[in-house]
Amino acid sequence: MRRTDKYPVDGPNALWQIYHTVSKWKAIRNFVFIQISRYSPSLRVKNWIYRHILGMTVGEHTAFALMVMVDVFFPEKIHVGDNTIIGYNTTILAHEYLTREYRLGEVHIGSNVMVGANTIILPGVTIGDYAIIGAGSVVHKDVAPYSFVAGNPLQIIREGHSEK
């Protein structure tokens, strides 16, 4: 189950009211630095931007591949452990704007995790240490440590347990 906080809105859908919930200048600044990170070949530069400008928690030796898209409005709600790989063109969201409400949720990705290319990680999920997420998956629920999951809807391929 995803852990998100829900905030009801009156009037038009929540996305039309985005700048009541997040500063326009924060969104513009974050967008510019996220685009620099998406195209940068340097893992050190990406991690520095994520940690020091966007306020994300990013562990040592974590690698974000080319074109990874982190949440523009709430990147500080994203936490990634050590030695994790986030695959090409993955999207990590910490918000969702709906017709009558918006939701915010922390995303916790453990250490030594492998996230395959073109994966979408939704707000409010936790991915345990040593988990493997297959390419093209939609992570809409928690993933146990040492598990291998894939697909849309997300299916468990191998249960979470140590290979030791």
From TrEMBL:
Key words of the record: Acyltransferase, Repeat, Transferase
InterPro entries: Hexapep, Hexapep_transf_CS, Trans_hexapeptide_repeat, Trimer_LpxA-like_sf
Protein name as annotated: Acyltransferase
Short name of any one Pfam family annotated for the protein: Hexapep
GO molecular function, a single term: acyltransferase activity
PANTHER family: ACETYLTRANSFERASE, ACETYLTRANSFERASE YVOF-RELATED
Recorded superkingdom: Bacteria
